[in-house]
Amino acid sequence: MLRSMYSGISGMNNMQTKLDTIGNNIANVNTFGFKKGRTTFKDMVSQQIAGASGPGGGLGGTNPRQVGLGSQLATIDTIHTQGSLQNTNRELDLGISGDGYFRLGEGDNTFYSRAGNFYLDSEGNIVNSDGLYLLDDAGDIINIPPNSQSFSISQTGNVNVIDDEGVLDTVATISLAFFANPEGLQKEGSNLYQVSANSGEPVVTTPGMDGTGTLVAGTLEMSNVDLSAEFTEMIVAQRAFQANTRIITTSDEILQELVNLKR
Fold first, then answer.
1. H or E stretch including 235?
2. Is the same domain home to 115 and 99?
3. Can you tell me the mean pLDDT for 217-242?
4. In whole angstroms, what is the distance from residue 132 CA to residue 110 CA?
5. Domain Flagellar hook protein FlgE/F/G-like D1 spans what residues (predicted)?
6. 120 domain-assigned
7. How far, in Å, CA of 9 to CA of 221, rounded?
8. Does 252 lie in the same domain as 128?
9. Mean pLDDT highest for which of 55-59, 147-151, 180-184?
10. Of 133, 126, 121, 123, nearest to 91 (Cα)?
11. Positive or negative, the Cα torsion across 202, 204, 207, 209?
């Protein structure tokens, strides 16, 4: 079989993966805190036809002659750039302006998220849309006493409450975590990340400390997906897929000519 046919197949497979990533980005264009993905590729091993030779014997050197065998997937990156903050004027909508991730607890498991749409449960605990608890700087659940008149959250994560007697009190401080390599975090779905072998261990701090961003109450971080860029990449992937199918078609025509030599 012709090597070009298998090169075309590898290119088609890679473009399908690229389109899968683009489709996921577009599907999550309105997902709070979503970070877009990006695919990169690299060439496969090249078959050696002839090696290089150095100058000598009255002749100059020659370069190696190699035939590439196609392309392969290199990485699927998660791009953790800041998304724009959308104003909602809701006390429990929290946007992070800068680096850092909310810490969410489910039993003994801790997850991380940029999505800041939080709610109160029947006991006054702050939870996300799936019921995971928002954790403070001590790793405890944050509770708003049911008899509170009102509450507010500061830029530095302080949860301030006015009790039934009108006394202002800080009941907890929201914690943030940051990582040496945030692109190494593993996606768990539902806007959640978990620590991986290459993300580094989380450094737990409070908003505005140790290089983390501050909280902006009444806002939500939108997805960092750029639709115009995604549609452009979709066109590029589609044309590249078509070009690789043409390689297979042309290779097939050559094979057909070889088969027709004997009649």
1. helix 227-259
2. yes
3. 96
4. 9
5. 96-161
6. yes
7. 40
8. no
9. 180-184
10. 126
11. negative
C-alpha 36/C-alpha 147 separation (Å) is: 41
Residue 215, beta-bridge partner list? 96
Pairing of strands 101-106, 214-217: unpaired
Q: Is 38 helix (H, G, I), strand (E, B) or coil?
A: strand
Domain residue limits at 172: 85-221
In a domain, residue 121? The reply is yes
pLDDT band at 46, cuts 50/70/90?
confident
Q: Do 169 and 143 belong to one domain?
A: yes
Nearest residue to 156 via CA among 119, 118, 205, 192: 205
Q: What is the mean pLDDT of residues 176-200?
A: 96
Query: Average model confidence (pLDDT) for the chain?
Result: 94
Provide the 8-state DSSP code for 6.
Answer: H
The total number of structural domains that make up the chain: 2
Please state, in angstroms and rounded to a whole number, the distance separating the CA atoms of residues 125 and 146: 10
pLDDT above 80: residue 221: yes
Report d(CA 80, CA 182) in Å as an integer. Answer: 7
* SS3 label, residue 59: strand
pTM, two decimal places: 0.89
Are 214 and 247 within one domain?
no
Q: Are residues 24 and 40 in the same domain?
A: yes
Which pLDDT band holds residue 258 (cuts at 50, 70, 90)? confident
Distances (CA, A) of 64 to 48, 53, 68, 70: 8, 8, 12, 18
